[in-house]
Amino acid sequence: MDYSNKKNVEDINVQGKKVLLRCDFNVPFDAEGNITDTKRIDESMKTINYLINKNAKIILCSHLGRPKGKPNPALSLKPVAEYLSKVLGKEVKMANDVIGESAQNLSENLNLGEVCLLENLRFHSEEEGNNKEFAKKLAKLADIYINDAFGTCHRAHASTVGVTEYLPSVCGFLIKKEISAMGNALTNPRRPFISILGGAKVSDKIGIITNLINKVDTLIIGGGMAYTFMNALGYSVGTSICESDKLDLAKDIMAKAKEKGIKFLIPVDNKVGKEYSPDTEAKIVDADKIPDGWMGLDIGTKTANMFSEAIKGAGTVVWNGPMGVSEWERFADGTMSIAKAIAESGAVSIIGGGDSAAAVQKLGFADKMTHISTGGGASLKFLEDAPLPGLVALDDK
Ligand code: AMP
Question: Structure pTM?
Answer without folding.
Answer: 0.94
